[in-house]
Design brief:
The chain has a four-stranded mixed beta sheet with strand order 3-2-1-4. A three-stranded antiparallel beta sheet has the order 5-6-7, with no helix packed on it. The protein has a three-stranded parallel beta sheet with strand order 8-9-12, with no helix packed on it. The protein is globular and about 75 Å long. By secondary structure, the chain is α/β, with parallel strands linked by helices. Helices cover 42% and strands 14% of the residues. Pfam families: D5_N, DUF5906. It comes from marine sediment metagenome. GO terms for molecular function: hydrolase activity. InterPro entries: NrS-1_pol-like_helicase, ORF904-like_C, P-loop_NTPase, Phage/plasmid_primase_P4_C.
Length: 310
């Protein structure tokens, strides 16, 4: 079917505009994918009817692993499946695999079959936790149009070979300016020269390294722009790259500090009246020390924090 459509396209290729050619190429790609999925579905159904569940599951495992880049952090308590999507790795691999299996098997889908495939993919893709989380690429960050080198300000294409967890919801434009933000900062800051401090703070948040070992605090009376400034940071960096762990939660026995892992910034809106009984954890998080934090239903996690404290 694809070959016939391709032959028709080739007959009229010289008359196609670039946009039409791209559209047809995408349509052919989707058609080929549907054909592959149909053939895989028929093969799996046939093997299930023959009571050859192992062969059916192996075919699905091969299909998923060939199309997607997957890592599973090695842990005997609870492994996490990370899958590459749009330039970064996300910890939703298990639900993604179930979705693919359901799409292929249709009425033959069962939770047991999906779990069997998940278990096989886990075993195929194990990686040590320290190795997986240890590749930070300190001077690079993903944006909507590629990987931005913060030192050279040059973009490079996305690649699954580089493990990133953060992606900004912005398209990088070296020449872009925003007069509205400049005007807003000028209106909420007491000193005009402090505008550059906020711009530098936003830039500091892009680095996956806490090389300025300081926390930052916005002060002032009510309705003076503090909350809007925090919202601006959140929108720039992306909600998924921020967290809101209160100062009073940064204690060794709390599981809240694990939220800082792989986040760019911690935006705590207001200081609570609850006192911080132990400042050790907070100091370690700001000072680039390795911390060990508790996680619910998971093994304790060791990491070096780079989420800036605001």
């Amino acid at each position: 079917m694809v070959d016939k459509e391709l032959h028709k396209v080739m007959e009229h290729i010289d008359n196609l505009t670039e946009a039409d050619a791209e559209k047809l190429t995408e349509e052919l790609k989707q058609t080929r994918e549907r054909d592959i999925e149909r053939d895989l579905r028929n093969d799996c159904w046939e093997n299930i009817l023959k009571k050859d569940e192992d062969h059916a599951s192996e075919r699905l495992v091969e299909f998923i692993e060939a199309k997607h880049f997957i890592y599973t952090t090695r842990d005997d308590i609870k492994a996490e499946i990370w899958i590459y999507s749009d330039g970064i790795y996300k910890p939703n691999g298990e639900s993604f695999i179930k979705e693919v299996v359901r799409k292929i098997l249709l009425h033959a889908y069962t939770p047991q079959r999906a779990n069997k495939i998940i278990a096989k993919i886990e075993a195929d893709t194990y990686i040590d936790t320290d190795e997986f989380f240890g590749k930070s690429y300190l001077n690079e960050i993903c944006v909507q149009n590629g990987i931005l080198n913060l030192e050279t300000r040059k973009l490079s294409p996305f690649t699954p070979k580089k493990i990133f967890f953060n992606k900004l919801p912005v398209t990088y434009n070296r020449d872009a300016v925003c007069k509205n933000i400049d005007r807003f900062f000028g209106g909420v800051l007491k000193d005009e020269s402090d505008k550059m401090v906020l711009f530098e703070l936003a830039g500091f948040c892009l680095y996956k390294d806490y090389f300025i070992e300081k926390a930052f605090m916005f002060i002032g009376d009510g309705r003076n722009g503090k909350s809007k400034t925090l919202s601006l940071f959140k929108n720039f960096l992306g909600v998924e790259n921020t967290c809101a762990v209160r100062l009073s939660q940064m204690e060794p026995q709390s599981s809240a500090p694990c939220e800082l892992h792989n986040r760019l910034v911690n935006l705590a809106g207001d200081l609570s009246n609850t006192s911080l009984k132990d400042t050790g954890m907070f100091k370690e998080l700001v000072a680039r020390d390795q911390v060990q934090v508790k996680r619910k239903y998971l093994r304790e996690l060791k990491f070096t924090n780079y989420a800036k404290m605001i």
